[in-house]
Amino acid sequence: MRAKWKGIFVNKRTLESLKIFNRSLTITLDFLNKRVLVYNGLRFVSIAIKEAMLGHKFGEFVLTKKLGGVIHVKKKK
Length: 77
Description:
Blueprint: H1 12-16, E1 19-20, E2 35-39, E3 44-48
Parallel strand pairs: 1-2
Antiparallel strand pairs: 2-3
């Protein structure tokens, strides 16, 4: 958790390009009503920024793991 006296974490370079590698950036008013590409570790995922997302992190809206399927399968002997 980031200290409150430091303020929100925003990188000035990400405002120019809409490809975001750092998922811990805070969504600000500069991104409102725009489509951004957020990297999830494998590929870029497109997200439309809405008013309800302001103040949250980009990583909250991008899944990094595949859902469903069986991960561990026991083999029969």
